[in-house]
Amino acid sequence: MGQTGKQQVKVAILDLYDGIANEGMRGFREILQRYKAKSGLDLTFEIFDVRKKSEVPGTEFDIYLSSGGPGSPLSEDEVWDKKFMQLVDKLEDHNLSNNPQKKYGFFVCHSFQLMCRKYQLGDVNMRRSPSFGILPTHLTKPGEADPINEGLSNPFYAVDSRSWQVINPNEKRFVDMDMQLLAIEKERPYVDLPRAMMAIRFSEYFVATQFHPEADAIGIKTLLVKDEKKKEVVEEHGLDKYEQMLERLDDPDKMIHTNNTIIPNFLDQAILSLQLV
Q1: What pTM did the predictor assign?
Q2: All domains of the chain, ordered by start, with CATH?
Q3: 81 exposed, middle or buried (CB, 10 Å; 0-12, 13-18, 19+)?
Q4: Average pLDDT over residues 98-124
């Protein structure tokens, strides 16, 4: 407890954007600030520039949020990638120890792909064309029962923004490692391609999404109204789809609801565990 008597919660945000301007980091900060105000916790966070500066936190934090980012997740030879994986190993070792206070991790998009590569859960490859939009995402049976998805409809809507994907789940690895596939990509009956994995629970303490639950309407609108992004979306999906994306931004049952649900549910689960220690 701090001097105010409030419980102290330390969060590390791992920035994997490699110095590229983005809305994701602001999304994480806003969710944490809202959660702090609502919960009354002494919640603090620190940002680590993993790719640009090879900054990686130690194991002294309670919760780790790892972002999306540009480029290939097949970066095994990069110094930052090795340091990132070493951190994950340390957190896993901690969680397997007798220490009652566990470490919680949430991994988004690029971080999701890195973790799937680490655990060999499927094929990590480049999409034929980038996916971008506020798109339906389908919960699996385990996903419907998972506490991070409590309050979501099935399907629910989330921001999907990626040029890479993880497909063809290795079912044996999932079973052997006691991991669960929580969500998959929207159905595309007119496209004869496998549906990407979109959310995975690696353990009681680690979970990941290939979509962006931290994205909010302000951030996506800022992106969509830029001439370059509008041109890209219209060329790829057509003007009707572009206008549909703008309409979905203000729908309280779509990305706004997802933003208010998944990461806050994860924080609830993590902080309840901290309080029980």
Answers
A1: 0.93
A2: 8-276 (3.40.50.880)
A3: buried
A4: 97
